[in-house]
Write a structure and sequence with these properties.
Elements lengths: L1 H29 L2 E17 L6 E6 L6 E11 L2 E12 L4 E2 L11 E8 L2 E9 L1 H8 L11 H7 L22 E9 L6 E8 L11 E10 L2 E11 L19 E14 L4 E13 L3 E16 L2 E13 L5 E12 L4 E12 L5 E11 L1
Antiparallel strand pairs: 1-2, 1-3, 1-18, 3-4, 4-5, 4-6, 6-7, 7-8, 8-9, 9-10, 10-11, 11-12, 12-13, 13-14, 14-15, 15-16, 16-17, 17-18
Length: 368
């Protein structure tokens, strides 16, 4: 009798296990997921001479785009909902180091998890700022930290000058192209119109100075595209990634910085026009405040199988260092395939009271 009961119990357990396995398989089939590996490698060679500096002949990474690799995934939760994640790491192909510079964090491009819904997407982690997105989408050289005049005026000034440069300038934004400890909401696309709101937290007990936020709109309709973005960063209580900054070689305690930027493009097929305007207001704890006006205009023109790029950027401060900056660049991008291209470019960079800087070089970029 006990043997029969034991056999019946084992049979029941086997049937339960089979049923559970089948249910798990059905759930996995219903909740489909995917993971993608991707990135790009960009290396260039040429000559670089920063304003007021001497010439250097270099092999560098990121001539036209910063090299990186990443992986992203999504899981379909049903009903128009998806769980998403992204991890992206910059690296230097000229020496194999990770990051954009010594001391950069590993996943400094993006590191977030979020939820896509029919009503928009919410993400949290380290996130690319809306200001960076608007800056690169509306200038001909896009995200080039080597040849783009607008990238120099926005992100390679004030507290973050290029490696090897010794000049000082108070043009540009304080802070990185990505924010730590950030949360972002992105709207769905409404006939070409979309928006984003991002907030960065201080991540410290008793820290009420984490007033770091940004709002953006993007509009794409036919040949016309436009953007507007506002960014505010508060420094009163020194959030983790926004401590005391040194824009002029000495410790200058910022109170806050406000940035507003507008951009537009118009594509006539035989030529595409680019325009940007940025107003930067700096409030400093000791010396008051000053502002900077920045403008950029440019074109891209299809020539043969490739594209000619040209851009001019101008910045003028009111107060601060009483400085004018003029930067222009021309280049040509030649596609070898859908994933690989060759390029050559020249940039001329002028700062008040300094000898002219120049960068000239050629490179190759491969995407995967």
């Amino acid at each position: 009798m006990k043997a029969n009961v034991s056999r019946a119990l084992k049979t029941s357990l086997r049937m339960a296990a089979v049923a559970a396995f089948a249910a798990a398989g059905a759930s996995a089939a219903q909740a489909q997921s995917s993971v993608q590996l991707y990135g790009q490698v960009d290396t260039w060679a040429g000559m670089q001479q920063f304003p007021g500096g001497q010439r250097a002949y270099v092999v560098g990474g990121g001539g036209m785009s910063t090299s990186y690799w990443g992986m992203k995934g999504a899981e379909d939760l049903g009903g128009g909902y998806k769980a998403v994640f992204t991890l992206e790491d910059f690296f230097l192909p000229q020496n194999g180091a990770y990051g954009r510079f010594s001391g950069d964090s590993y996943f400094s491009r993006n590191a977030y998890v979020g939820l896509e819904t029919p009503y928009g997407t919410v993400t949290a982690g380290r996130l690319t700022t809306p200001l960076f997105v608007s800056t690169i989408l509306f200038n001909p050289f896009i995200d080039s930290y080597t040849f783009s005049p607008m990238v120099y005026h926005v992100f390679l000034g004030n507290t973050a000058i290029p490696t090897g440069a010794t000049y000082t300038t108070d043009t540009g934004v304080v802070g990185d192209s990505g924010w730590n400890n950030a949360v972002e909401y992105s709207t769905p696309d409404y006939n070409g119109l979309s928006g984003n709101v991002m907030y960065g937290l201080g991540n410290q007990a008793g820290d009420n100075g984490a007033k770091k936020w940004s709002a953006q709109f993007l509009y794409f309709h036919g040949a016309f595209a436009a953007t507007g973005v506002y960014q505010y960063v508060n420094f009163n209580n020194a959030p983790n990634d926004l401590g005391t900054v040194s824009p002029f070689g000495t410790a200058v305690a910022f109170k806050s910085q406000s940035v507003g930027q507008l951009g537009a493009t118009y594509d006539l097929k035989f030529v595409k026009f680019y325009a940007q305007y940025m107003y930067t207001k700096n409030d400093e704890l000791i010396s008051g405040s000053w502002h900077v006006n920045t403008g950029q205009g440019g074109v891209t023109v299809p020539v043969g199988p490739g594209t000619v790029m040209a851009s001019y950027a101008y910045s003028r401060d009111s107060g601060g260092l009483d400085q004018t900056r003029r930067t222009w660049a021309v280049g040509y991008d030649y596609p070898l395939s859908k994933r690989t291209d060759l390029y050559a470019a020249y940039m001329n960079d002028q700062l008040s009271s300094l000898s002219t800087g120049q960068t000239i070089g050629a490179g190759i970029r491969a995407k995967f």
